[in-house]
Design brief:
alpha+beta; eight-stranded antiparallel sheet; 11 helices
Length: 301
Amino acid sequence: MEQTLFLKKGQQYLSGDLQFQFCGLSRTLPYHSFGPAIRECYVLHMVLEGKGTYHVKDEKYQLQKGDVFLIRPGITTFYRADAADPWMYAWLAFSGKTAEEVVRRSAFQEDGFAMSSSNTQKYIEIIKRCLEYNQDNLLDELHLNEQAYRFLATLLEDGGKVNTSAEEVSSPLALATVDYIQQYYAKKITVAGIAKDLAVNRSHLSRVFSKQMDMGIKEYLNGVRTNRAAFMLAYTQETVEEIANQVGFNSLIVFSRTFKKSTGETPTEYRNRMRQNVGASQVFTDVEERLKQQAVVSRAT
């Protein structure tokens, strides 16, 4: 779950060698993740605050403020916010032959996935301008494609240092466990049950997952459930007890205790604050302050 400012291009009026696809900025909650998934375009993320991990091509990168990571089309990726210090990041997605050529000529070259940027603020200013062109018409599409060119020029100018190798090898088994949990978190699942369905030894599964995710399987499962509960608290009329049951908690007491440990608020306190924010109509000029006022949504970015 995340608080986000987001723009996705709808109808494409033009075909060309470089096209803007979508962009945004997000402040994530603990355990927020995306994937494992395959994108059809390039997506470049800039980490503004906090920490997280990025898994790609059997490699795992530990990322923090000032780092940039690239998602390439056609490659399976997974990334997750840190449980204790979840990240705030911005991103812009683009496609086309020009995109491929510029990425190849940038510091990422043909096989890079992460780097430490010399100045992430330049990227952010372009993304903030993109958010202003939110009309689904030809004029705004031209403006967005113009900003995409500026964005790629910034990438070419970036004097940052590329991480040529990941800190450690990423585990397909850990990612398969993540995928399993994201599908079945609402059911009564156990570590033993996951191991049986994945046809692996339970102890081996627990060791691999803990090493990869820096937490146990049960902790990650509770984090996924808490994230989903946060969305339901903000956007549904279900009672706290009903939400607890729907996300996989059989005990309201356990759910409340787990939720507060993760967010710092009880479910009721969280629901009240989110509903107040949804109704807010103030105008903010600073993007971080604007993000703080956004209600939590389930959109993965």
